[in-house]
Amino acid sequence: MPALSLVTLVSLVSTVFIKQLDAHPPQQQHQHWAQICSGNPTNRIRGCDRYGCGNFGADRHGGKGKHAGVDVICSDGATVYAPFSGQLSGPIRFFHNGNAIDDGVQIRGSGKYSNFDFTIVSTLTTFLLHPNSYCVKLVCIHPIRYHGQIHRGETLGRMLPMQKVYPGIISHIHVENCDHSDPTHLLTPAVPPLPQQDGRWAAVCSGNPTNEIRGCDKYGCGYYGAPRRNGKGKHHAVDVICADGATVYAPFSGQLSGPIKFFHNGNAIDDGVQIRGSGFCVKLLCIHPIRYSGSISKGQVLGRMLPMQRVFPGITSHIHIENCDHSDPTSNLERGKGQRD
Ligand SMILES: [Zn+2]
Ligand SMILES: [Zn+2]
């Protein structure tokens, strides 16, 4: 067997990488930071109090300066967690006057492209293209240490007693990107804080209130991970049983985009739509949506099941439901059992 040259390998990896980028443009990647403060699972940002406002760009020094960070609400003494994995450095001081909250730490590390299907591509591209994807300073906290490695979600330290310095302020961690860019979008949680309560999807097809998944028929099986293309591929989706012509409902609230096609051959079922919102992103294929843009609410009519029997006679007709990041949506569909709220 001929040895694979480095050039061939790099070219192979690049091809896979480009294909991956195609399938998942960067803005669709999992780029959200983890919860930073205990008691604030959504990284809620300080509003305004008599000392100022917590949003990025808020006025400082009587309008002469701007807030170069974002203030994430955090009670004095609360546990602070690392928003992403990286390398610690510090101490980082803001006041330089030794007051009770004059402490902090910097984290520099990666985070982007972490959910690529191919670990080697992820590692290579992170290393080659994004050696330091994120760099942030967390101020007004006392870290467990000022150096070494920390992992996303690990305890990073403790919120300092801000009320002692600013009585009546909304206590907060000052979160500042090292390049002074706006970190607000990174602080938005990727998934709702209480998935058991908020993560249930509604029934997606009339006549199938429990989102029952297609079993196996002569064309294949409907579960996540089922073999495809004679075992050369896998089903990165779940097939929810749905009769031809049945009404299709939105599993959660979000923004529509499309059309999303699977077959790209213009057959009778080559249509679909994407919904992004409520912490989810899915593609629903083999349906004809009411429209391809705008917002939709959970349980609202999304469209109509296309005539699958015309293309695959005898198949268990179904909506192909695929998470945008190719993860397994089964548990979300199961949580939808009987739920239409
Ligand atoms: Zn601040
Ligand atoms: Zn499918």
At the third CATH level, what is the topology name of the largest domain? Answer: Glucose Permease (Domain IIA)
What ligands does this structure carry? zinc ion
CATH superfamily of the largest domain: Glucose Permease (Domain IIA)
CATH classification, class level of the largest domain: Mainly Beta
Core attributes:
341 residues, alpha+beta, Glucose Permease (Domain IIA), 2 domains, 6-stranded antiparallel beta sheet, 26 strands, elongated, disordered C terminus, binds zinc ion
What this model shows, in words?
The chain starts with 5 loop residues before the first helix and ends in a 6-residue tail after the last helix. It is built from seven helices and 26 strands. The C terminus is likely disordered. Helices cover 15% and strands 28% of the residues. Strand 14 and strand 15 form a beta hairpin. 33% of the residues are buried. The strands form eight sheets. Strands 5-13-9-8-7-11 form a six-stranded antiparallel beta sheet, with no helix packed on it. A six-stranded antiparallel beta sheet has the order 18-26-22-21-20-24, with no helix packed on it. It has a three-stranded antiparallel beta sheet with strand order 6-12-10, with no helix packed on it. The protein is elongated, with a radius of gyration of 24 Å. The chain has two domains: 162 residues, Glucose Permease (Domain IIA) (Distorted Sandwich), CATH 2.70.70.10; 140 residues, Glucose Permease (Domain IIA) (Distorted Sandwich), CATH 2.70.70. The chain is of the alpha+beta class and 341 residues long. Bound molecules: zinc ion (2 copies). One zinc ion binds next to loops.
